[in-house]
Amino acid sequence: MNWVEIKALHKLYSDKEVKFNQTINKSPVFKMHEQAGEIRKERKKYVANDAFFLVYKTKYLAEFNKYKEFLETQGFLKPQLKFSKKAIDLLISFDEGLKNGKLTKLREDLIEAQESVKGFSLMFFKNEKYLDKHSSLVDAIKKVLDVELVDNKSQQYLYVLQCYKPKLIILCENGNFLNRDKLPRENNYELWYAGGRNVPKLEYTSEIRRGLPIYYSADWDKDGLEIYQLAKERIPDLKLLHPDGISRSIDITEHKSHWLDPEQPELLSGLEARLYSERHRVKIKELIIKNHWITEEGNNLKVMIENSDFKE
Predict the structure, then answer these.
(1) Is-contact 45 20, C-beta < 8 A?
(2) Per residue in 199-238, pLDDT tens?
(3) Using an 8 Å Cβ cutoff, are 219 and 294 in contact?
(4) Is 195 left (phi over 0), alpha (psi -120 to 50) or beta?
(5) Measured between alpha carbons, how far is 159 from 172 in angstroms, rounded to an integer?
(6) Which of 71, 135, 189, 217 could hold 184 in an S-S bridge, CB 3.0 to 4.6 Å?
(7) pTM score
(8) What is the separation, in whole angstroms, between the first and last Cα of the chain?
(9) Cα 14 versus chain centre, distance
């Protein structure tokens, strides 16, 4: 349920009717109350029956008043507002957590880590791309928490995050780590971002490597590991970093990259087995069997470097 539905239910309660709109027409909440005989359709509007008023007072009224007061106080209450109920509850919990001190450490950690929109989305929503299409919610989160989340957007060119004395290069599948400079610069990691599958440009990078070892940081899903293989064709000594992040369900996160032949995990979803160490192959099989994946942003670059066997 979102704010449009929440507001429409209240209008039904206060005015005894509400006009149809696209959201209300598709709303499972309105359908539920219609099937229960608590509201009925009349031409282009819903009309409340007597039973609805008691149901609304019991189930929705206190929550509506709480939401309305919060949204008004924060300056979020605009005609185009479509925040989901979950998003409003989350914003309220952030506000209350900062006031009572329970989220002070979280806010400090977000600032210290230079957290990105994608990373924040992964922490609090069903997947790391949820907030990409909810810019107004991103703005609200920034305001309530008083933090600046790094933008995900990046063009499809080779980007380099430099440091004073690089000891190695990490080629990243996504641009998120390049937007967070503190950890790589403190540890002398130079980060590259080519733009996902846009790897042909890597053929021209031999000179700018300066003889430094180069490693690959990937999403551990079928698409991410295929991109690693494409990159390794251009840079044969490219070494794949082993993930330290927690895997998540592909179904629950509504992820778009699906493993092939899940009933035969030993086939590694069609990936080239020779390009992976035994440890890598074990992890890939595990992910296929569980139907899970590991997002690149869920890993820690320093941990992956320190735990990697550079002889692989």
Answers:
(1) yes
(2) 888 988 888 899 999 999 999 999 999 999 999 999 999 9
(3) yes
(4) left
(5) 10
(6) 189
(7) 0.69
(8) 50
(9) 38
SS3 of residue 244 by DSSP: coil
> Exposed, middle or buried by CB within 10 Å (0-12, 13-18, 19+), for 47?
middle
SS3 312: coil
Q: How far apart are CA 74 and CA 70, in angstroms?
A: 6
Domains of the chain, with CATH numbers? 1-75 (no CATH), 83-153 (no CATH), 159-307 (3.40.1360.10)
pLDDT reported for residue 128:
85
* pLDDT at residue 154 is higher than 70: no
HSE value, Cβ hemisphere, 13 Å, CA-based, for 208: 14
H runs (alpha helix) in 115-190: 117-124, 135-145, 182-186
For residue 90, what pLDDT band results from cuts at 50, 70 and 90?
very high
